[in-house]
Fold this sequence. Notes:
Layout: H1 3-31, H2 38-45, H3 49-56, H4 59-82, H5 89-104, H6 113-121, H7 127-152, H8 160-184, H9 188-203
Amino acid sequence: MSETTIDRRRARGDASRRLILDSATDLASVEGLDGLTIGRLAESAGMSKSSIATLFGGKEALQLAAVDAAAEIFRGAVVDPARELPRGVERLAKLLRGALDYSRNRVFTGGCFFAATAADMDSKPGPVRDAVRGWLRDWYGYLEAQVRHAAEAGQITADASTVRRLAFELIALDNEANSRSLLIGDDSPYVIAASAMREKLLAVGAEPAALEPLA
């Protein structure tokens, strides 16, 4: 078999894998990771069970691949654009706006993939829960780090306890906007959350110009 033939087959396999994972992440955002089975995905994506099983092996491997794919999408939509800005308040505001828009724009039909799957997996120990938990720990830690950088740079006035609480409150506003928008079917929770985030950061001394993404 020639290298060209192998490369073509690999490219087809990669394309099929991406297509399946697009369907898998969207399905899991609505039905949860526990409902993401090869059979259910085959039904939803209009593909054969055998083709999905060939690429992923089993349910757990599929679920873990979906978590990785969703994390990559989130990084591209929220984290990477914010990294173009300096650490601290400017990057924090961009991250918060990106997280709100990622949910509001329904990158996934069920809103935030990780909010949906965390609720589904939080009481089910195992590698899939560990993957979801690990990603959330990294995301929350990264956002808190921006609050800490802002405090250390004198962009806001906050001691260590205030930094942790402020990060918690900002994340809670984002999560509530996602949850309530899905429940009531409109965008108003995102407007309210952005305004509340801005007010909290202004209250600790952030410059209004740095918070333009939340205006």
